[in-house]
Hints:
Elements: H1 14-23, H2 25-32, H3 40-43, H4 51-54, H5 90-106, H6 111-154, H7 161-165, H8 182-191, H9 198-209, E1 214-217, H10 224-250, H11 254-257, E2 265-268, H12 272-289, E3 293-296, H13 302-310, E4 315-318, H14 320-328, H15 332-335, E5 342-346, H16 348-351, H17 358-366, H18 385-391, E6 396-401, H19 410-416, H20 432-438, E7 446-449, E8 460-466, H21 472-483, E9 487-491, H22 495-507, E10 513-515, H23 521-533, E11 538-541, E12 554-559, H24 566-573, E13 583-589, H25 594-603, E14 608-611, H26 619-655, H27 666-694, E15 707-708, H28 715-736, E16 744-745, H29 753-760, E17 765-767, H30 768-807
Parallel strand pairs: 1-6, 1-7, 2-4, 2-5, 3-4, 5-6, 8-13, 8-14, 9-11, 9-12, 10-11, 12-13, 15-16
Antiparallel strand pairs: 14-17
Helix pairs in contact: 5-6, 8-12, 9-10, 10-12, 10-18, 14-17, 21-26, 22-26, 25-30, 26-27
Enzyme class: hydrolase
Keywords: ATP-binding, Coiled coil, Helicase, Hydrolase, Nucleotide-binding, RNA-binding
GO molecular function: ATP binding; hydrolase activity; RNA binding; RNA helicase activity
Amino acid sequence: MADGAPTRAQRSSKKTKRKRSRHGPEIERFDSLPWARSLPGGGGDGDGDGSAFSLFIGSNELEGGFLSLEEIDESEYGLDIPKAVKQESGKAKKSKKNKDGNVRDSADHGVEAEIASNLEEEEEEEQQQQENVMTERKKKKKKKKQKKETKKVDELPAVDDAEVDHVDDAEFYAWNDLRLHPLIMKTIQRLGFKEPTPIQKACVPAAAHRGKDVIGAAETGSGKTLAFGLPILQRLLEEREKSTTVLEEKGEEVEKYAPKGVLRALIITPTRELALQVTDHLKEFAKDARIRVVPIVGGMSTEKQERLLEARPEIVVGTPGRLWELMSGGEIHLVELHSLSFFVLDEADRMIEDGHFRELQSIIDMLPITNSSVEETPQSMQSCVTIANIQRKKRQTFVFSATIALSADFRKKLKRGIARSKQSTSGGLNSIETLSERAGMREDAAIIDLTNSSILANKLEESFIECMEKDKDAHLYYILSLHGLGRMIVFCTSIAALRHISSILRILGIHVWTLHAQMQQRARLKAIDHFRGSEHGVLVATDVAARGIDIPGIRTVVHYQLPHSAEVYVHRSGRTARASSDGCSIALISSDETSKFASLCRSFSKDSFQRFPLENSYMPEIMKRLSLARQIGEISRKDSQEKAQKSWLERNAEALQLDVEKYDSEEERVNAHKKRKVSSNKLKQLQQDLKNLLSRPLQPKTFSHRFLAGAGVSPLLQHQFEQIAKQKSEEGMQSSGNGKGKLVVIGQDCVEPLQALRNAGDETRVDVKETADKRKGIETRKRERKAEKKRLHDQRRKQRKKLRGNGD
Ligand SMILES: Nc1ncnc2c1ncn2[C@@H]1O[C@H](COP(=O)(O)OP(=O)(O)OP(=O)(O)O)[C@@H](O)[C@H]1O
């Protein structure tokens, strides 16, 4: 344990811990540091309410994922939390007291009363004994659980040296140049990562071996998490090895001075889901190395997170809001930053978006201003100065994103180099440059920009469907029913749109999961889990899911509404075509959005996009279904609104102890009843009609019953149809010999959107600029015609008026 760090006993009570640590030399020094002034109340009990972030709670506008703090069950998501040591339970104390009370009472009674009392006492004693047994059992169980948890957090699996030796498999030779620690290589082999991705190849040598700061930009899904994660683990492992050697040489006890218990890496991500994902990803690599990684995000109780930090993990991954809440509350593990060796901003450009950087700025202000030299080593660290020397290499800052280069002319600045940029750092962190500089990024930082001019993932095929706003539902349903293979995310910009389409799709029998910022954290994680577990699942999400989420097998991304910025478009689309797989994105574009789409394309230096191939003969049937679904939705919505209104009235009347007279007259009551009945019958009829339509595959308009159409039919059913058809055709040949009455399966293969796009070929490629210009031309002509019409109309009216005046 590091010098000055509290022992387990010291940490048993939060209050005691705070009190003691406040008087400890570390904190006294901490209080005197200039950056401590950024803490509310002098780094003490600031409320740290995260107001800048809570401003976005419940917004129906663009979402960013800085959310309300709700309760989630950590154990469900693999977050190991050491339990707080509790004092003797109040219940046990109480029963003891009751027993004493009874003994005293019995002395005041007569014989009978005494016998009765004795009997009662015996009964109670028996009960007490039973309770004791139960308590004992519970205690044992609890102890066992605590032991298990402590084991999880403190006693990470022992390193199997024998296994470590067998890592230089020829299959993984591509990793050799990176000279990674055998324990890291062991995990790489276990995960089957044959070679480093380009960003990893570029970052690891610079960051891990040359100790550079890094600004990294590479396409979505290109393995950026490991590009900054591997150098962190590598350096921590190297340091551990070096310190062990030095101590062994000096004949010191390794365990005594082992550099455990201080925060070494702080990784900040913009969303909770991303923080949990990064934690899981790093944990995979860290567990063999016995390095602890802990997520600190909103949605968990603060106390539980403080307990999580009591295990003193080396790496913390968190969102700015919760991190700052704990830091400003003086959470010792998060404010003792003297040994912080890595500060990482993942999805950095998201952090500087308006209003999202207040907490981040406060966190950055907490970082030690300069990376202290050995001479500045505090007195308390001198006892293990050898370790301190090893640890006290300069702090490295990593700033990563897929879209850094998209932010205003940053690409040029990247090329010029940070050093020559003269931007002032006195203002807010409103650019990546100021953010990086303020975080302590050194002038010789390695700038690794692997994004191509289009920024979008290499294997992503993009397409669009141009339609009226009101027809977007129909086109989405078309995609889902004809090409609903593989996982798909449908992105909306507003929660209102998300609710609308998820309800329509559910009525149409398509099960979808939803994800937006107004959902409870538990529900959000469950939605992601279910989606991850379903091979052909559909997730309807807002932009809270746009960044970082890494779920294998997402084949299609649909932009139901266009995002407000090119960056968000890139991140949304980047949920597919990840880690060397391909994928496709489909943007549904209404006529109002064409110019926005054209300007999006310009940001990616794209001239042409492919029009997603549509078979219009399916549209009449789709519209029929959709019309029924909309009517059903409308009636159900009215019904539930009425019910909610009614129960609101009833609740309030009940509170005021009033009888609510629902109707003014008997006639009104009867009419209302009739109306309800009619509406309920209509609803049943509509539901039945829709059920009938849904019970058969989607049919094109030219459908002939002689043919068994397979559109919208699952591959399995398709196969069965083909078998029947084959059988029938053989029978037909045998009986008539002319092949008449043959059953033919014409079914459109249920191909996934990417395949449909490829099958369509290049004819569907459209010059987006040309289309936008054409549309602009049409609209201008329309406006001109309208103006001309109005002019003629006014002219005629004036003439009529004149004539009437002359007549008078
Ligand atoms: N060397 C590798 N070989 C194969 N797969 C890898 C390799 N490195 C990482 N991956 C996998 O690639 C996927 C994407 O990685 P990661 O999430 O780090 O991408 P990213 O660049 O951060 O994406 P985004 O910009 O969307 O956040 C993950 O599933 C990860 O396990």
